[in-house]
Here is the input.
Amino acid sequence: MPEAILKVQDLTRLFRVGGFRSRGLLHAIDEVSFEVAPGEIVALVGESGSGKSTIARVLAGLYPATSGSFVFEGKAMGRREVRSVRGDMPMVFQDPFGSINPVLRVGHALIRSLKLHRPDVKRSERFAEAVALVEKVGLTPGDEVLRRYPHELSGGQRQRLGFAQALASNPSLILADEPVSMLDVSIRIGLLNVMKGLRDNEGVSILYITHDLASARYVADRMIVLYAGRIAEEGLTNEVIGSPQHPYTRLLMSSAPDPHLAPTAFDGDDLGEPPKVIDPGPGCRFAPRCPLAMDQCLVSQPPMVILSPTHHAACYAVKP
Here is the structure.
C-alpha cells in the first residue's frame, strides 16, 4: 500500500450542551482513527448523527479537535496548519449554494480560486483554465456555463460546479459531505461518475460522506461504518457489503437491500432507540438496539476485531 495521504488518529470532538445548572458533553466523534491512500475514495457511512460531517469539519478546520490528531501529506495538522492547506484539501458541501455567491456569475468563484491557489496560472489564462475545469466535471460548453448565474443551473449542475471549484486549487484530497443527497436519483449517478473520474484521471483522493450505502458501494474503494461517533466496521467495500459483520452494518444493509446480493438478516427487531451521545456510558453505544448484546457490551467498549488484513469490526459477538 502507498503511504497514506491522510492519517487520522484518535480524533475526538466534544460539544458542551445544556443550561446553566445542567451541563453535559455531546460526544460527536470519539477516538476515530483511519487512513486515506493517494488516489482512493473512502466512504464514511452511517445514519444521521453518527458523526460523519463532524469529522469532515474538523479536518477542514471548521471545528477544532477536542483531542487526537491527524497528519496530511506527512505534516501534523493544527488549526494554523489546516488553514495553510485548504487549497490542497478543499470541501464540497451538501448544499452547493453554501460555496457559491448567488449574485455573481459562475465564473467568478472559479477564477477567484485560481487567483488564490494557483499563482502559476497567469491572469490572461484564468478564464481558459476555468473553462477546462468545468468541462472536466461534465459542464459543457464551459464558456457558456461560466457566464451564467447560479440560479440558471440545475441542482446537479451546481453540485458539479462545487467539484470544479474544489479542483481549481489542484487538490490532493477532497472532502465531499453528502454531495448527492439533495439530487434526484436519476442525476446522482452522473455526479458519482464525476468523483470516480477525478480519482482515476486526476489522482485525487476523496473522503466521501454519505448515508446512502448504494452510492458508497458504487464509488468507494473502502468503507468506514460509523455509529454514534465511533467506528463500528471498516474494510474494502466489497468485504463490508458482501460480508457485513457488525450488527449495525447488517441493520443498514437490511434497510437498503441489494438485489444482486443475498438478503442480509439483522438477527432481530430494531428497537429504534436513539444512541446516547450526551455523557455516554463506557459500553457499546449500539447495545440498546442490538439483538446480540451481552452483559460485557454494557460495561466496556468492544475492541476492533481483525477479520482480515483489510476488514475489521468492533463487536464482542464477532469472531476473527
Remarks:
- The mean pLDDT is 89.
- Residues 257 and 263 are 7 Å apart (CA to CA).
